[in-house]
Structure formats: C-alpha cells, structure tokens
Amino acid sequence: MPSIQNPLVSIALCVYNGDRFLEIQLNSLLEQSYPHIEIVAVDDCSTDDSRQILQRYRAQHPERIKVIENETNKGYVKNFEWALRNCTGQFIAFCDQDDIWHPEKISKQVDQMPGHLLVYHDSQFIQEDGTTMDKKMSDVINMVVGADPAKLLLFNSVSGHSCLIDRQLLQYILPFDPDHFHDHWTAYVALNVGKVAYIRETLVQYRQHQSSSTDILNRRKKLDKSYHENRDVKKLTRELNWLKKCQSFSQNKDQAFLDTFVNLFETRLDTYFSFQYAQFIGKHFDRLFYIQKKRKSSRSGYIYRQIWGLRAKTLWAKFFK
What we know:
This protein has 14 helices and nine strands. By secondary structure, it is an alpha/beta fold. The protein has two domains: 9-207, Spore Coat Polysaccharide Biosynthesis Protein SpsA, Chain A (Alpha-Beta Complex); 224-319, no CATH class. Strands 1, 2, 3, 4, 5, 6, 7, 8 and 9 form a nine-stranded mixed beta sheet that branches. The relative contact order is 0.12.
C-alpha cells in the first residue's frame, strides 16, 4: 500500500497507433523499482494493435494497469489532459508510447520531489531501432532549474517524458490548450508557482523517428525544404501566440516584464526596424536564451539580427528569393 514515505505515483501513458514500440515501453514501466505505481493508459482511437496490447497487459497486471479507450480522437495534447484527469496518485509522470525508462527513474525523481512541483532529468537519444546516438539532451540544450519562468518563454528544456509533477500543479495547468505543447506549459507554470529540480542522469532512452511528437534534433526540419518557406511569418506568429498564452496566466511572477516583452515582440511583427526589441533582448539575453547553447561570440550578431522587423524580413525575402 502507498504510504507517506512512498506515495502513489501515476504514470499517464498516452497511446495512438503505437503498437510497434508499446510493449517495450510497458515492460520498462512495469520494471520500475519504485513500489507504488499505477499506469493509466489512454488509447486515442488507435487503428493498429495498440488496444489489444493494452488489454493483454491489463489482464496480466490488473492491479497496476488501468486502460481507457476514447470513443472519439482527442488529439495529442487533449489526450494527455484526459489521462492526467484520470490519475489518482500524489505524483504524476508523463509517458510517451515509444521510449524506454530506466528502472530507477521514478524512484530517483520521487526522492527529489520535496520542495518542488516538478522534477525532470536528462535523456539519451536512441535511433528508431533502439541503438544509441551517443548524444544526450543536455548535449543539445542547457537545462533549466530553479524558479525563473523567463528562461522558458522562448525555448523549452523540459520534455514530457522526463516530467514528474506534484498533483497540486493540475489546478494551474489544466485545461491544456491544444495549440501549445503540454510539457512546455506545465514547466512554465511550475516555475511561476513553485520550483523545478533537474536530475543530471539519463533516465529515459528517448526514441527519435519520423512519427515522434517532437523534433528536438531538427532532423525533420533539415529534410523538409517546405519548412523554410515563409518560416519567419509562421514562426514569429506561433511564438507570439505562445507568449500571449503565458501572459494570460494569472500567477505570473513578473507580469510587468512579460507585458513589456510581449508588446515589443508583437510590434516587431508590424515594423521594418525594432530597435527597442533588440535592446530588450540584449539586456535580458542570459535569461531569455539560457536554454540555447550559443557561443558568446555569436551573441552580438544575434542581437543585431533582432533589429530587423518582420516587414523588412519579408521584403528581403522577396528580393532574394
């Protein structure tokens, strides 16, 4: 039975057409050393053998696995919300369908939970076939710790598969907005209303393939030439929508900072030059771009490029298309 020392941990596993790797993931969940877990698996109308796999595992482990089968497809983000709403544990772990968890993952994260609303860890990239890529998440980006939400305004270091949250965070993060990544939002909110801890160990083998929900290594972007067409317009518009979502959160630590940043960012989309925005970026560069592994020598060049507004970028693209 769960206790104060070993509270129940719910694993929110979201599934959609994941039969290829689902059994490997389920086995790694069942092999967790932590004694008190429940696996809440929500299938989002899969058309492959995912449901059959889940039902078979539930029959074998009825005391540990609960399976929910959606009647209509909710989509990736809303399916995670539904999974979280069905979790009963004091702590909740986000889980994708195609990774491999280290046996000590949950145990190590629970040990770090006191005083934190969210604990996450490093991850090891693996190929589609499971072979290592000899690269960790921390090799690609800097990992955020502490309680400064500004570090997550433009980039995210907290991947869902690495998250363990205290259930009290649910009152702030739900409902999820399907237009934004649920893990990014969860981490941003956690930094505003509490603290985030980071474990430097790689506790998940994070599978990279074409159907992955995220593309942190930018492999698909490099292959897809159409991605770069109108990239500035789409990228900046998407970022503005995200910033406005953050701005609307009622528990922001520094609302004045956020209001100024969003206003300057939005103005940049309708001007040729944006000197004030570039100045703001330069002043707060270490916070806003903390996650990016940029050399100090490239910093001034990057800030200079922020002077150009979207109108100038669009005009430039027309002349040199």
